[in-house]
Every structure is written in structure tokens, then in C-alpha cells.
């Protein structure tokens, strides 16, 4: 079953899509090839006309309607489940096409998540980023310097934040409106976008006390009910058996036991400094995600599942990695030639030389009658080769 509820709640896109497209369909390879056709790896520029042209020829058009430019630079990809549009931004320094593919897969998992509609409302990533940006711009006006507390009420903060967002992001349209229409637009956006005003105010409070912005954002991202399955699925991708195999190939100059020992240490204690360095070598994105989950999640089951995913994938890798190479099969004629070689004699002369003794005889300087006779037969050829 593609949706692994029983194991640890990961969503396997390959299995989900292969149900419709057939077992031979390689979703990862198709997505990678599509992105490579329209994204410059050297300059990071996205050629949307080329991407959408090739999308129309791909089976991926059943799951993605089109690629469009993204408005924010905080994510590589976004996905609109209603229109099936995938939003992309140009690659920045350090970004790769693989990173973009992983971001798209993360967003697509949200669209096929069967439990999505049953989960409780939670602060969205859009509002989380909006609150962090607004606080960063107006910190001096929002926080009392003596008490480190917020000056304004929750309702007023929401209205001011949305007003600032619209006057910045929708400047051309919003600023032309009369005051009463502006007020209506702000109220409409507050009702539509802010499902958990208590959490938004909590974000402002934590930032006001001096808590690091990245830490606050990570906390809400990791604990978002909609992210549970998708984040675990990302871990499953970043540390798959195939990824462990690539790591082993990279250090193939080491003996197998050393590689296995290093990976076992990492899986047992991924938060230690030495383990962190090895994890970054395997997947820097995976290392960052694991550290954020283990540091911020309030769901103990999620922690256990991170360890379980790592352990299960390592065991699958280990099973293949430690296999002995298959022995070369001997040709049938060689087997026939060996039959009876060095077999016991019958009759009076039951004693015979071993193969080791025969190989030790120097026919350029044989010793005694027996060795001389043996060498003479060897030069002439004889049944000794098969019958001794």
C-alpha cells in the first residue's frame, strides 16, 4: 500500500503514481529529467516556457497543471492543490536541481495526503513568514523596551500585519483603494488567512522575548499537523538505502567494516557532533531536517519514527552491502577435466603424489628416477593429467 500508515506514516509518491501510470513508471527520473530540460544548473535560471512545453509531453501533466514563478524566496517550490500549479523560484547559491525536485515532491505529498482535511487548523507557513517579517521591520514600535512585552492587542496586531503585507505585496492595487475599501480588504484577508490568531500572537510574543527567528519558525513548521507525514517522507528520501549506497561508494577505499561502523554510530546518536558531520556528508538537507525535528518536535512518536526510518533503511542497505560476490561458475568441460584428478589409484600401486608435490617438481633439474620419469611423461603428455 502506497500510504504507509502502519509503518510510520510516510507517503510514497512513486507507489502512489505507479498505481495510475504502471509499475515501470519512474516518477523520480521523470521529474528530474523535466527540471533539467528547463532549469539552468550553472545560472539557476528557470525557463518556464520550456518547462511547460515539456510538461505537456510528460505523464506528470496528470499531477501538475503548469509551472509558474514563485513570489517568495523562502521556498524553492510551492503547490496549489486547487489549480495544481507548481510555483518555482530561481536556484540560489548552494541550491541544486535535486533540491528543487525534493521540494516539489514535498509539496505534492501534501496534495495526496488522505488525512489532510481531518486535521485541526494550524498557523500556515505564509502567515508564519509574514509575522516574522513584520516583526523584524517594526520591532522597535511593537515591543516595550523595558518589559519586553508587546504594546498592542492581538486583534490590532493582525490588522496591522495584513495591512503592511497588502501595501507591500499588492501595492499597485491596494494603495489605490479608498480608506473604507482598504479596511474591508484587510478584514477579508484576516478572516481568510489567519485560522489561528492565538498562534500568530504567540509567535510575536516569542520573538519579543528575543528568541531566534529561525528557531521559532522551525518549531511551528515541525509541529504542524500537516507536515508530520511529509517531513518523515523527506527523511525517508534523504536517507534511503540508495543514498547509503552512494555514501559507501564514495568511501570505497575503506574496508566495509569501517563504513558500517561509521553508519551505525550515526544512526544510534544522530545529534552528536561527530554524527552530524557524517550525516552532512550523506545529505546536508537530511542532517538539517533531522536536527530540527529532534530539537523542536513535541510529538515523541515522530522522534521514534525518525530513528525507525533511519534504522530500517540502513538494514536494507546493509543486507545488500555485506553480500559476498557471487562465485564464478566453472565451465562444464573444466569440471569434467577435474574428475578423477588426484583420485586414489587401484591395484598394487595405491600410493600417489599429491598435486602440491607435482607442482613443486623442477623439471629443469629433476631428482631421482621417479621425478625424471614424471617429467618425461609430462613433456610427452599422458593420462596422469586426468587419472594421476
Radius of gyration: 34 Å
Order of helices and strands: EEHHHEEEHHHHHHHHHHHHHHHHH
Helix content: 55-70%
Percentage of β-strand residues: under 5%
Write the layout of secondary structure elements.
Elements: E1 3-4, E2 10-11, H1 13-21, H2 27-38, H3 48-55, E3 66-69, E4 77-80, E5 85-88, H4 97-112, H5 125-142, H6 154-169, H7 171-174, H8 179-193, H9 197-208, H10 213-222, H11 228-238, H12 241-250, H13 256-268, H14 273-282, H15 284-296, H16 300-321, H17 332-338, H18 355-360, H19 368-380, H20 384-387
Parallel strand pairs: 3-5
Antiparallel strand pairs: 1-2, 4-5
Explained architecture:
Helices cover 59% and strands 4% of the residues. Strand 4 (77-80) and strand 5 (85-88) form a beta hairpin. It has a 3-stranded mixed beta sheet. The protein has a two-stranded antiparallel sheet with strand order 1-2. Mean pLDDT is 86; it is low at 1-7. It folds into 4 domains: 3-118, no CATH class; 125-222, no CATH class; 239-321, no CATH class; 355-388, no CATH class. The chain has 388 residues and is mainly α. The two termini are 62 Å apart.
In short:
The protein is mainly α and 388 residues long. It has helices at 13-21, 27-38, 48-55, 97-112, 125-142, 154-169, 171-174, 179-193, 197-208, 213-222, 228-238, 241-250, 256-268, 273-282, 284-296, 300-321, 332-338, 355-360, 368-380, 384-387; strands spanning 3-4, 10-11, 66-69, 77-80, 85-88. It has four domains: 3-118, no CATH class; 125-222, no CATH class; 239-321, no CATH class; 355-388, no CATH class.
Give the key terms.
mainly alpha; 59% helix; three-stranded mixed beta sheet; 4 domains; elongated; 20 helices; two-stranded antiparallel ribbon; 5 strands; 388 residues; single chain
Amino acid at each position: 500500500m502506497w500510504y504507509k500508515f502502519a509503518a510510520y506514516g510516510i507517503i510514497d509518491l512513486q507507489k502512489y503514481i505507479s498505481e495510475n501510470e504502471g509499475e515501470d513508471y519512474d516518477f523520480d527520473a521523470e521529474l528530474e529529467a523535466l527540471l533539467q530540460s528547463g532549469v539552468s544548473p550553472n545560472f539557476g535560471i528557470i525557463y518556464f516556457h520550456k518547462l511547460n512545453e515539456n510538461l505537456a509531453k510528460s505523464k506528470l501533466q496528470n499531477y501538475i497543471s503548469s509551472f509558474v514563478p514563485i513570489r517568495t524566496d523562502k521556498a524553492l517550490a510551492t503547490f496549489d492543490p486547487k489549480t495544481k500549479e507548481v510555483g518555482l523560484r530561481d536556484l540560489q547559491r548552494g541550491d541544486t536541481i535535486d533540491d528543487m525536485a525534493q521540494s516539489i515532491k514535498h509539496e505534492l505529498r501534501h496534495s495526496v495526503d488522505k488525512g489532510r482535511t481531518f486535521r485541526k487548523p494550524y498557523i500556515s507557513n505564509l502567515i508564519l513568514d509574514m509575522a516574522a517579517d513584520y516583526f523584524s521591520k517594526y520591532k522597535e514600535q511593537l515591543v516595550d523596551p523595558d518589559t519586553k512585552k508587546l504594546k498592542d492587542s492581538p486583534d490590532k496586531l493582525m490588522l496591522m500585519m495584513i495591512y503592511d503585507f497588502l501595501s507591500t505585496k499588492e501595492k499597485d492595487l491596494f494603495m489605490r483603494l479608498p480608506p473604507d475599501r482598504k479596511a474591508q480588504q484587510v478584514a477579508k484577508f484576516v478572516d481568510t488567512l489567519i485560522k489561528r490568531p492565538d498562534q500568530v500572537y504567540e509567535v510575536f510574543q516569542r520573538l519579543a522575548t528575543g528568541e531566534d527567528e529561525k528557531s521559532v519558525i522551525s518549531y511551528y513548521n515541525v509541529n504542524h499537523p500537516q507536515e508530520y507525514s511529509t517531513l518523515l517522507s523527506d527523511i525517508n528520501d534523504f536517507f534511503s538505502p540508495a543514498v547509503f549506497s552512494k555514501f559507501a561508494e564514495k568511501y570505497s577505499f575503506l574496508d566495509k567494516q569501517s563504513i558500517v561502523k561509521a553508519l551505525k554510530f550515526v544512526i544510534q546518536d544522530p545529534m552528536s557532533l561527530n554524527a552530524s558531520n557524517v550525516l552532512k556528508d550523506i545529505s546536508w538537507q537530511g542532517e538539517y531536517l533531522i536536527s530540527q525535528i529532534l530539537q523542536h518536535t513535541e510529538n515523541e512518536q515522530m522522534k521514534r519514527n525518525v530513528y525507525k526510518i533511519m534504522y530500517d533503511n540502513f538494514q536494507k542497505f546493509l543486507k545488500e552491502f555485506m553480500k559476498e560476490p557471487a562465485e564464478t561458475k566453472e565451465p562444464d568441460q573444466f569440471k569434467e577435466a577435474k574428475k578423477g584428478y588426484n583420485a586414489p589409484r587401484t591395484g598394487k600401486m595405491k600410493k600417489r603424489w599429491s598435486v602440491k608435490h607435482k607442482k613443486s617438481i623442477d623439471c629443469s633439474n629433476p631428482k631421482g628416477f621417479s621425478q625424471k620419469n614424471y617429467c618425461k611423461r609430462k613433456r610427452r603428455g599422458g593420462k596422469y593429467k586426468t587419472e594421476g
